[in-house]
């Protein structure tokens, strides 16, 4: 069990109006989404995580994707400046919530843009996806904040999906997992494992070898089982319709 905390934010009643960029719009069932969100939160809690709710932003359809509001490294939370104008109002309450958890904060400022979904941390290596939502200035500012804390920030291209973590995440041993057709440059990562489904590229490390992942990637779950991990599966279909995945729905504050 872990005593780590996760910031979460409940879905807006306007969730169905959330942004989409790389996929076709299909109707979102907001009530089903609310139930799926609760199951996601319950899965974190059952794995020993303390879930801390960030005040809702009901006017922001994408507010539930709270991961995008910040990057947490050691005792510092770098508050993002969203690449999509509509999402900028999401950051203020998230900043307040993470500060209340005892974190120092710093801010990405204009003309920098950065979404938390573009940042993949593996130990002290911080991969930053340079693409639709995060620009070079945002990455330079992030580097300025994190390198004094011992991070190495490496920019990698993202052009086929919304965020870097739409394409790749990492297993507990640091192996980057990705669905190759959507990964710009698998060679950017020292260890890369191709998974058989797009959603198989998305895992949240729950601790003790458990991987929180979406129900839409059963073959990848089987692959992870064969590697000795324990998939913890949640159905997040309504968030996937808005280019969301398991990582986007929380900010993990690891002690
Ligand atoms: C890793 N991913 C994908 C994220 N962290 N965020 C997803 C945001 C989706 C939202 N509809 C948008 O377009 O902003």
Automatic annotation (TrEMBL):
InterPro entries: DDAH-like. Pfam families: ADI. Signal peptide: none annotated. The keyword Hydrolase applies. The keyword Hydrolase applies. Keywords: Hydrolase. Belongs to the DDAH family. NCBIfam families: DiMthArgaseDdahStm. This is Dimethylargininase.
């Amino acid at each position: 069990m872990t005593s780590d905390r996760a910031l979460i934010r409940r879905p807006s009643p306007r969730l169905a109006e959330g942004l989409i960029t790389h996929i076709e719009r299909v109707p979102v069932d907001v009530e089903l989404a609310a139930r799926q969100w609760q199951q996601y939160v319950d899965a974190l809690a059952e794995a020993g995580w303390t879930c801390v709710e960030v005040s809702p932003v009901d006017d922001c359809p994408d507010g539930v994707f709270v991961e995008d509001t910040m990057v947490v490294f050691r005792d510092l939370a770098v508050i993002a400046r969203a690449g999509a104008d509509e999402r900028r109002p999401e950051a203020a309450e998230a900043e307040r919530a993470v500060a209340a958890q005892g974190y120092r904060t710093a801010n990405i400022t204009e003309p920098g843009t950065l979404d938390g979904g573009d940042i993949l941390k593996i130990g002290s290596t911080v991969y930053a996806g340079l693409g639709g939502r995060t620009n070079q200035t945002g990455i330079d500012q992030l580097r300025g904040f994190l390198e004094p804390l011992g991070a190495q920030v490496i920019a990698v291209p993202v052009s086929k999906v919304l965020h870097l973590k739409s394409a790749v995440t990492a297993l507990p041993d640091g192996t980057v997992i990705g669905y190759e057709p959507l990964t710009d440059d698998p060679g950017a990562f020292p260890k890369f494992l191709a998974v058989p489904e797009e959603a198989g590229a998305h895992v949240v490390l729950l601790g003790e070898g458990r991987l929180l992942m979406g129900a839409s990637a059963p073959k990848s779950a089987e692959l992870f089982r064969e590697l000795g991990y324990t998939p913890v599966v949640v159905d997040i279909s309504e968030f996937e319709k808005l280019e969301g995945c398991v990582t986007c729905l929380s900010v993990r504050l690891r002690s």
